[in-house]
Amino acid sequence: METHSKATVCYAMVIDLDKCVGCGTCNVACAIENNVSVPPPEALENRGLTWMRTQRVDNGKAWPDHRTVTVPIPCQHCEHAPCIHVCPVTAVQLDESTGIIGQIPTRCMGCRYCMAACPYHARYFNWFDPKWPEGLQDTLNPDVAPRMRGVAEKCNFCHGRLDRARELAAAEGRPAAEPVHYTPACAEACPHGAITFGNRLEEGGPIAALEKKPEAFRLLEALGTAPKVTYLSREPWIRRIGLSRLDRVRGHGDGPEGA
Amino acid sequence: MTLDLTRRSLLKFMGGAVVGSVLSPLPWKLLDDAAIWTQNWSWIARPPRGPVSHMFTTCQLCPVGCGMRARLIGASFVSAWPVVGDPAAAGTLCPLGLAAAQMRYHPSRVRGVARRARAAADPAWRIVDADATTGELGQRLAACRSRGAGDSIAIVDLRPGRAMSRLYREFLARQGGGIYATAPDAWQASAAAFAGMATVGALAPAPDPARARTVLNFGAPLTAGWRGRDIVPHAAGGPRLIQVDPAATITAARADRWLPARPGSEAPVALALAHVLVFEALAADARVNALADLPHENGSTLRTVLADFAPERVAANSGLTPAQLRDTARELAAGRPALVLGVGDAGGGPLGSEEEAAIWNLNLLLGAVGPDGALGVRPADTALFDEPAGPAARSLSDIPDGSLDVLLVDGSFPGVPVSAEQLRRKLRGPDGLLVALSPYAGGAAGTPADLILPVFAPGEWVEDVPAPALAARSSYSWATAVAVPAPFALHPAEWLAQLEAASGLVVPPEGGKSGHEAELKRRAGVLQSRGSGQVFDPADGNTTDVAAMSDPDLLAGALARGARWSDKATLTLADRDVRPLGQGGGLAARWRSLAGGRADAAKPGATGSLLLMAGGGLAPAAGAITAPVLNKLYRESGLQPGSRQLAVSATTARALGLAEGKSALLTTAHGRRRVKVRFDNSLPPDVARIAAGPDPADMGDPAASADDRTDIPDLCGAAERPVWRLVRADLQEAHDGNA
Q: Which of helix, strand or coil describes residue B404?
């Protein structure tokens, strides 16, 4: 695990797939917190914006041996994020003080290189002006600005909540260098407690402990992107989801279950 | 040195200025400003501004009534979040509740009294004059009363047990014997089946999985549903879970034992387990023997009836082996306190009174009822609030077809699986009027209506929320007003008083909005005077004993701030008060008729190559009105199946010549519907499943057509049969391209 040597904070997320039931609460909480718009009715189904995508995966077997799992996939906030390197206008930045990969919509020129580069398909493009049914703009979160048409966007670990936590810490007179604790909307809303969020550099903290569990794995780990989102499962066939196609070619996977 | 200004030097200066400005921050600043400017176009939504505050309330979007923390910006209710420590659902909210703030602005919200002529060429909704419409309706009521036909007026209350429910009953009594009806959902039907086995009235079952060592569950998505968040996995110290489920669902996969029983075989499976318990004397004690040998009206006993349900006889039709059935019964007996839960996939409507009675009998035989068991008994809402006797509640299915002149449907609760066709059939010909008190032109009430009264949306008024059916504890809270009411919206009680006046009656003091408020306070006073139970305060997470509250108005004040009263199941049920074969007789015969599975699906002459299961899965209910943001679950991510997606195994679909994503016509004896085929290998062969949940068409899907508009309950024959979750169906490719 690589982290920034100078930082005292590196936010990370652990998602327990054995607890996740695919209810979609994280998905909805994220959309409400971050003013993620609903595309117009005439939009194609793949033109929607879903910062917390939920991917259903099965073991490839027929009834009665069939098993499914739902994998919530936010931006993985990679340590070596391909999206940063391909952005021609530096609209994607790694915040060294938090480890969060930020997307700056006012810089984005809509080339979508970052979307092509992201191996997790965790980035979305605003094909339409962000519009809500009449009156619904009164339910938007004032801490997060709606993005305009023609820019990419993605999960930012609820940066609006981080800002609020920092404001609160400042109001309480805590030193600016002191790490602040906050909870993203998906982690707060998950009814099954499947999502844990925190500072992975905190000694004895929950994230560090969970990341060391033997059932921990990351998506496409062989690509070397070093995601800050870790998944947990006791099921071997679920853990094989983390393997890349390259791994399977090398013989680590075993057919459809590893797919 | 002279200043030698030449044309060349001027050009050089200008060129240098251009190159220099490109290298300066200016163009980037211009780009940045232009980008920021595009964020401020007039048509881009602007979030509300103002001070941030929070209010506590109770979610009204499903019967569970979870605690909710409403975030307000100024006066705008912008979002809802769970309340940590709330006892209703362990401090959680489902996606429906999270999106509650959007319900006020739902695109299908009615913005005035709306009317349509269903027989007209253009049956579109039109806004009409509210006073004139109320006057016309009042004259109808007066005409019914004057000819002694008060029973041609009915109100269907989709969420009984509230203060508003009492006002409805009193209104009907004054109209000369109007009918107060309910349309029990799967949970309420299960509770009613239990109450029907008891000879003492006004009680409700209170199953508590937390007190059980073993839980046998018939099909409900206990670990995966929006309503099943209170069962702790066995690995984390919870009970052992045995799941009876045709499909390899998430709950089945996570259960400690999975019984893949054939759809519709719940009753014979439960009776076979009871057979093993009784005839192998696995749970034998004096109480169990007394129950098994209790003679009923026709001389039969539970023991004699169970003799017909030996595992060897049941196995053939249930898809299970005799060994599986015997082992399960032994595991239940050894793992007491055990609890057996019915309901199944609640989105498909009630499980059936026969199945529920068989399942409750299993609990009785396992000794689940009692101080050491996991099945408590609590007072029914009417008993809890000392309600005076009014018109008895009847089930909607008990009202004769074609008997009503005016049918009012309370649609303030948008998520009840009710057949639109069933509601329409109750009307007396084309002159009958179906009136929905609903904020929305859709859902269970709005879809079949001729007239919609635009009542307050959830969050716009104070309403009480009683305990859901099958809750482990009694509970009561108020959904407080967290949003400013829409100017066109009506208070249901206030409108009811106007209607009563228009019908020529004098509105009593207990009517109208003030009457509703008085009833809310009366209920709070009744609970406080009882002196039992606790009050959970969401603001600080503390719990206070009601007995410690000295001021008689304290509980009402706490409820108004979003607190929740709850009390453990306090009643006891003596063995002499239980009739295992029911009170009305005939249950044994009905069980025998189900020996081969649910008769409606397997009856001779039923056609169709597929057994179609209707269910909610994770969805709330048929015809539910859901917030626009739930589109992300139903349409954008495909996480939730919409009611136009038919799940079927790949093997079965290919045998029918259908590929994934193909458009197909699903035909039953009751209707047809265009669906998109979705491969789901968790299903057994020749079984299909369709979600009775929200239709993506209601979320703006342009692909909707007339064939898509058949509601799932009607497709499964809900207008004709009380149990409609299983039906024979045919599936054929639709030859008009892919959906």
A: strand
Per domain, the residue ranges of chain B are: 52-105, 203-379, 598-733
Q: Do B98 and A29 touch (CB under 8 A)?
A: yes
Residue B362: strand, helix, or coil: helix
Instruction: State the number of CA atoms in the 13 A half-sphere of B353 facing the CB.
Output: 20
State the CB neighbour count (10 A cutoff) for residue B563.
27
Q: Which residues of B touch A130 (CB under 8 A)?
A: 44-45
Whether B46 contacts chain A with CB within 8 A? yes
Domain spanning B598-733, CATH class: mainly beta
b/e sequence B231-267, b meaning 16+ C-beta within 10 Å: bebbeeebbbbbbbbbbbbbbbbbbbbbbbbbbbbbb
Q: For chain B (length 739 residues), average pLDDT per consecutive 10?
A: 80 92 85 76 85 95 91 95 89 90 90 86 86 96 91 92 93 91 90 89 89 94 65 82 94 93 95 95 83 83 93 92 97 95 88 94 91 89 77 88 95 73 91 93 86 94 93 94 95 95 88 92 93 94 92 91 92 83 84 80 66 74 74 79 89 94 91 91 94 65 51 86 90 71
Place of tokens 């870790």: A230
Region A239-243: what's the mean pLDDT? 86
> Which residue does chain A place closest to B109, by CA atoms?
A134
In angstroms, the separation between the Cα of residue B243 and the nearest Cα of chain A is 14
Ordered by start, the domain boundaries in chain A are: 11-258
The residue in chain B having the minimum alpha-carbon distance to the alpha carbon of residue A91 is B32
Give me the CATH topology for the region B52-105.
Answer: N-terminal domain of TfIIb (2.20.25)
Contact in structure between B101 and B459 (CB atoms under 8 Å): yes
Dist. CA A222–CA A11, nearest whole Å: 22
The CATH-assigned architecture of domain A11-258 is 2-Layer Sandwich (3.30)
Mutation for B interface: A138, A182, A235, most B CBs within 10 A: A138
Question: How far, in Å, CA of B710 to CA of B448, rounded?
Answer: 12
**Chain A positions in Cβ-Cβ contact with residue B36 (cut-off 8 Å):** 106
